[in-house]
Write a structure and sequence with these properties.
10 helices
Length: 298
């Protein structure tokens, strides 16, 4: 274990040393490029931190973030790596940049290439502010997902759960009571104390006789319908005389005399003459048939 930790520490230190030396090599190129696009001495000294420093920040973010955030950090790392490579390449192609004798804002002879290089060199500081802030915010708001700990012995855990399951346990039933055994006193545990007096035998007590329960005859339910006890009060009785079918038809004709055919319904007739739904439907059919016959005759 100690050797493994020492090896990892040595690997990290070697990586830091390589990155530091690479940063020093790229320092001159980025500083001269910054001076060529109009930066002063202080800004030119800080310019390498803008490019290579954000690369280091993006590399650390890829080790912390995951999923889409990690992909974003890798893209930032790749973009700034390509930008640093291009600027170092231009620095190697233009010898005037080494002695700082190049014209201000002139990184290439071809105008479109020069405009693209100046735009690249001047946009990297703004991009560092934006992408650096975004990466730091993602790292601060990142939450690591807990790794579920697997059981060391799944079979043992399953066996324990089965033993603890109440469904597999037998249902406890009460043991039969022996009257003679119930009458005898139960022995009491004394522990390490022992009685010096001899125990006297107690006479057995006979159980009291239990009288059997006599079965009584139960009267069977009568199949005859029961009659209502008492009379219906006179107030509850209807005072209206029962109407004949002819009288109902006459009242229905009078009530629906001015009704259109669409309004002649069973519910409407029932409400108009206060009759049952069956009578209302029969009256409806009769009235509609009479109206149809009159239309045919006319």
């Amino acid at each position: 274990m100690n050797l493994h930790r020492k090896g990892r520490a040595a690997l990290v230190l070697a990586l830091v040393a390589v990155v530091g030396m690479a940063f020093r090599v790229s320092w001159n190129a980025l500083r001269d490029i910054a001076g060529a696009v109009g930066a002063d001495e202080t800004a030119a000294m800080l310019y390498p931190f803008v490019v290579d420093g954000l690369m280091a920040l993006a590399l650390i973010a890829t080790l912390v973030l995951a999923d889409r955030d990690r992909t974003f950090a890798l893209r930032v790392l790749g973009a700034y790596t390509v930008a640093s490579l291009v600027l170092n390449y231009v620095h190697g192609l233009v010898p005037e940049l080494h002695g700082r004798t190049v014209d201000w804002g002139r990184l290439a002879d071809w105008d479109p290439a020069n405009w693209a290089l100046v735009l690249l060199a001047t946009s990297l500081p703004v991009g560092s502010i934006y992408f650096g802030s975004d990466l730091v915010a993602k790292v601060l708001h990142h939450r690591t997902t807990p790794i579920p700990v697997a059981s060391t012995n799944a079979e043992e855990s399953t066996e324990t759960d089965i033993k603890r399951s109440m469904a597999d346990l037998p249902v406890s039933t009460a043991a039969p009571i022996n009257p003679k055994a119930a009458a005898l006193p139960r022995p009491v545990a004394v522990g390490f104390l022992k009685s010096t007096l001899p125990a006297k035998p107690l006479p057995s007590i006979a159980p009291a006789p239990i009288a059997p329960i006599e079965s009584r005859a139960v009267a069977a339910d009568s199949t005859r319908p029961r009659r209502a006890t008492g009379r219906v009060p006179a107030v509850a009785k209807s005072t209206r005389r029962k109407r004949t079918p002819a009288q109902l038809l006459t009242e229905a004709r009078t009530a629906t005399k001015d009704w259109p055919d669409a309004k002649v319904t069973g519910e409407g007739i029932r409400r108009a003459i206060h009759t049952s739904p069956a009578n209302a439907r029969s009256l409806r059919d009769t009235l509609l048939a009479e109206r149809a016959a009159k239309k045919v005759a006319a």
